Amino acid sequence: MAKCDFCKQKIGPGTGKKFIQKDGKILDFCSAKCERHVFKLKHKSRTTKWTDEYHKLKETGSHVIKEKAKKKTKKAKKSKRRK
Fold this sequence. Notes:
The protein is elongated and about 65 Å long. The protein has a two-stranded antiparallel ribbon. The protein has a two-stranded antiparallel sheet with strand order 3-4. It has 3 helices and 4 strands, in the order E-E-E-E-H-H-H. By secondary structure, the chain is of the alpha+beta class.
C-alpha cells in the first residue's frame, strides 16, 4: 500500500492519484485536498494542522494526549491513597 506524500495516510487500492513530475519523481495523493495543498496552495505538511507529520512534529497526536491523560489519572489516584 502506498502512502500519501502530503498527509502520510495509507491509500487504499483503487483510490487516490499518482502524479509523475518531469524529473521522474512519483507523488501519491489520497485526495484532491492533499493535491491542492501541495501544488496550488504550496503548503508544507509539517505546518498544516490536520496532517500526521504536524502532529508527530508538535507531539500533539491523539496517542500522546491519551498517554498524558493516563499519567495524570495515575498521579491523582496515588495522591488519594496517601491521604
